[in-house]
Amino acid sequence: MIEKANIKDAELLTSIALTSKAYWGYSKELINSWKDDLTVSPKMIEEMMVYKFISNQKTIGFYILNQPQNNTIELEFLFVHPDAIGQKVGKQLLSHAIEKSNNLNIETMTLLADPNAQPFYESQGFISTEKKESSIPNRFLPLMKLNLK
């Protein structure tokens, strides 16, 4: 079940983001250096579109959409707890985000992907449009987009 997150969920969603990121084998030091970037604040939950995936009364994933600009919306976060990876939770969250975007008559969804997640997004129809340098020297992140119209 997917439902709107509330500000009380901020700490749990942050924990899921950090745990999910660590799934890809990044060092603890690297994960800690990204903590600010992966923190879900109560303000984000108030100002953005934040939805969580609940299974067996437990939150196991979530996504955040930024407010749309010029018929484009950015998928800021999409994270699934490692225990639920491979169970189509990410696909269901992404489908929900696309549905919400379509309801707003958005033309394009964009995201900055972790390189490990790029194949997932490509399998869902996203294309890589350019590479952005990350905070790690010589590491580039794919900027991806999906045409919704």
UniProtKB/TrEMBL annotation:
Domain N-acetyltransferase: 1-149
CDD domains: NAT_SF
GO MF term list: acyltransferase activity, transferring groups other than amino-acyl groups
Cross-referenced Pfam families: Acetyltransf_10
Sections of the chain in a coiled coil: none
Assigned keywords, A-Z: Transferase
PROSITE patterns: GNAT
Protein name from the UniProt record: GNAT family N-acetyltransferase
